């Protein structure tokens, strides 16, 4: 299977490639990840797992990797600084425009691969709207939701800047972890009924903007998790390629 990058191709080459390809658009964020992780965490992870998954996919003749969107709906992180955010409404418009543009360029099958929890609902709605409006196949997925949860992470998977994300960053880009700043979150997420997303006014302040204990991070475990996630993304790409149009 051949994966190519949209940005590296000419209009003529894309006109030929896109109708038979699956286009993968990674969606990230630029936001605070505690005192110890760089703000590109979600963008780096989404782009890396998209590229690895594209290389492993087997069903489409081509996978075209669109440039990663490095901004998401991150207003809940603004009080901590270090965050560049779009409102959810703005993100919805951005995704609608990008999907319309891709369809106008000839794309018929697309996957929005999301790397930030604050984008999840907006990505899902954008995919549904684009399929209806443009007559194309569009899927949306959070990359971490595509693979079974490993027992090592338990209730803290995927968390935010906790042990999982710190392990993943340690595997992908070790210089993105500030080892000297590692410390446990001072609070815990409130207990909730399974399937219920519970938001409280002071939630993020109480946990200082990150979850669990990043000191438990392990780069080898992060590398193993990345390998499973890449396989899962490949399966998702294959499913988009095989979905009835």
From TrEMBL:
<dbReference type="GO" id="GO:0016811">
    <property type="term" value="F:hydrolase activity, acting on carbon-nitrogen (but not peptide) bonds, in linear amides"/>
</dbReference>
<dbReference type="Pfam" id="PF02633">
    <property type="entry name" value="Creatininase"/>
</dbReference>
<dbReference type="InterPro" id="IPR024087">
    <property type="entry name" value="Creatininase-like_sf"/>
</dbReference>
<keyword id="KW-0479">Metal-binding</keyword>
<keyword id="KW-0378">Hydrolase</keyword>
<dbReference type="InterPro" id="IPR003785">
    <property type="entry name" value="Creatininase/forma_Hydrolase"/>
</dbReference>
<keyword id="KW-0862">Zinc</keyword>
<protein>
    <submittedName>
        <fullName>Creatininase</fullName>
    </submittedName>
</protein>
<dbReference type="GO" id="GO:0009231">
    <property type="term" value="P:riboflavin biosynthetic process"/>
</dbReference>
<dbReference type="GO" id="GO:0046872">
    <property type="term" value="F:metal ion binding"/>
</dbReference>
<comment type="similarity">
    <text>Belongs to the creatininase superfamily.</text>
</comment>
């Amino acid at each position: 299977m051949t994966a190519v990058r949209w940005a590296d191709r000419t209009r003529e080459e894309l006109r030929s490639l896109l109708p038979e390809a699956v286009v993968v658009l990674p969606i990230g964020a630029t936001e605070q990840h505690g005192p110890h992780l760089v703000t590109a965490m979600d963008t780096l992870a989404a782009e890396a797992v998209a590229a690895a998954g594209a290389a492993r996919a087997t069903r489409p003749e081509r996978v075209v990797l669109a440039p990663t969107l490095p901004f998401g709906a991150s207003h809940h992180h603004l009080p901590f600084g270090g965050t560049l955010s779009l409102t959810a409404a703005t993100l919805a418009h951005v995704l609608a425009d990008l999907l319309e543009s891709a369809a106008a360029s000839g794309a018929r099958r697309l996957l929005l691969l999301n790397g930030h929890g604050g984008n999840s609902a907006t990505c899902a709605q954008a995919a549904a709207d684009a399929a209806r409006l443009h007559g194309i196949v569009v899927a949306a997925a959070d990359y971490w939701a595509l693979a079974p949860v490993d027992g090592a992470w338990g209730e803290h998977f995927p968390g935010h800047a906790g042990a999982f994300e710190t392990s993943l960053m340690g595997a992908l880009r070790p210089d993105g972890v500030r080892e000297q700043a590692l410390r446990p979150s001072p609070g815990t997420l409130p207990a909730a009924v399974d399937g219920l997303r519970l938001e409280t006014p002071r939630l993020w302040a109480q946990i200082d903007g990150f979850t669990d204990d990043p000191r438990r991070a392990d780069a080898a475990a992060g590398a193993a998790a990345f390998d499973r996630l890449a396989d899962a993304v490949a399966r998702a790409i294959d499913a988009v390629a095989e979905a009835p149009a």
